[in-house]
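Page 47, continued from p. 46.
Same chain as before, 139 aa.
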Amino acid sequence: MNPLTILIADDEPPIRHMLNLKLSQVGFTVLTASNGKAAYELACEHHPSLIVSDYQMPGMDGLEFCQHLASNSATSKIPVIMLTARAHKIPTEEIAKTNICCFLDKPFSPKHLILKIQELLHSRTDETIDQCDKGLSAA
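Result:
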């Protein structure tokens, strides 16, 4: 059985490196991208099990990235955890147009992120990701 693949999209090299290390240590295969455009290309090519994306990235931000994912039938069911350095409030109707399941504020606990990833992957079915916490917003 192949390990599950997690795509990390973040423009901060230290965060990409730390998440790559932590997620690899618990058995995930990890792909990384420094912006939304590169992340979208990787998602289309590799179809990861889950994506962790920063909200603020140059070029294509995290929200645009997630809207592109949701509009592509090949990537529309991949759940996304959105990381944000600021308490961004994204309108519920915008979240509904994406694969975003939950938000985590930066700085975040890698242990908490791993637990959230495992929770989402275990609760997910092929038909729906309704069990994701779409109603959560950054506090």
